[in-house]
Task: inverse folding
């Protein structure tokens, strides 16, 4: 048969498929989110099979092993004891708190590991919201930003390489940049959760940290899943305010947003494959319905193909082990 072109010629051997492959997925593209807690024991997270809340010594070990396998960076999520949760979230900027202690231990043991911290109040806030809550239940934008700046400075003092504001308050990137620069931390980067959607995919994460909102939801600050143009608006603001990396979250159901931000910005784009995405793959594999390893790699490759330079994923260590 005389066809104008036969695309299958480029698929006929593994060697040719290697040559024509457009997208690469390596451990070097991955950021490993790790949960941590006080004490000397680890606690498995029920709704996130394979994940633990690590005590600091074992967190250092787990991060070091992932790093040795080629994962360049981790991001920390603390489970703060209930007695330290307050309406002002003051524990988030305590220099002797769980996160700064963990950063110091990680940097001492693994100087080349990039340590990223989450900047938001929810683990520290008795209301469970990312921002401060007024007596009548409103999330207070500008008051929250002052606390976020104190939190980021605390992380920077402890040695964090990148701070990642996940709170979705307006204007926080500019305020964080000014606060960091004002204190001499000009080298600390900001990875902004630029387009963070009000998503049900965060359910397992909130269970892991006991950080679900006590009242209401996060719809007045996180984005409406129906909106794409608004993500471009957020990206333009974050870029103008001095963000170093823009993030889209969740990833799998928001591939169009990743592609749009990739096209609209010259900044690196990160995407977060969140707890619910991880759980769906784990649950389908546990029932024998899907091949976990293949779906893990395909889901991440799809996120890369959409335009993400880097991916935050609970599979980071597994991927690195598979490729070692
Ligand atoms: C909170 C925060 C959340 C996640 C990362 N930072 C949850 C939320 O916004 O309620 C979710 C991550 C995941 O689901 O894996 N600032």
Result:
């Amino acid at each position: 048969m005389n066809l104008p072109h036969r695309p299958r010629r480029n698929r006929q051997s593994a060697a040719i498929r290697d040559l024509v492959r457009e997208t690469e997925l390596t451990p070097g593209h991955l950021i490993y989110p790790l949960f941590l807690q006080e004490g000397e024991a680890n606690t498995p997270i029920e709704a996130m099979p394979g994940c633990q809340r690590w005590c600091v010594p074992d967190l250092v070990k787990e991060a070091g092993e992932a790093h040795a396998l080629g994962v360049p960076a981790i991001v920390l999520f603390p489970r703060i004891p209930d007695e330290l949760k307050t309406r002002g979230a003051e524990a988030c900027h305590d220099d002797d708190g769980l996160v700064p202690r963990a950063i110091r231990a990680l940097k001492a043991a693994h100087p080349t590991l990039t340590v990223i911290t989450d900047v938001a109040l929810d683990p520290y806030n008795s209301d469970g919201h990312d921002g401060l809550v007024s007596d009548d239940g409103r999330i207070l934008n500008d008051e929250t930003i002052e606390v976020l700046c104190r939190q980021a400075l605390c992380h920077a003092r402890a040695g964090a390489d990148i701070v990642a504001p996940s709170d979705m308050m307006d204007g926080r990137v500019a305020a964080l940049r000014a606060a960091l620069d004002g204190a001499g931390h000009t080298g600390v980067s900001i990875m902004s959760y630029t387009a963070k959607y009000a998503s049900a995919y965060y359910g397992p994460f909130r269970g892991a940290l006991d950080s679900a909102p006590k009242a209401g939801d996060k719809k007045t600050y996180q984005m409406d899943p129906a909106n794409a143009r608004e993500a471009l608006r957020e990206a333009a603001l974050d870029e103008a305010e001095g963000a170093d990396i823009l993030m889209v979250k969740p990833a799998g159901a928001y591939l169009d947003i990743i592609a749009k931000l990739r096209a609209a910005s010259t900044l690196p784009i990160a995407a977060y494959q969140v707890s619910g995405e991880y759980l769906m793959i784990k649950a389908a594999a546990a029932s024998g319905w899907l091949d976990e390893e293949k779906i893990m790699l395909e889901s991440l490759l799809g996120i890369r193909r959409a335009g993400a330079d880097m991916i935050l994923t609970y599979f980071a260590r597994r991927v690195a082990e598979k490729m070692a």
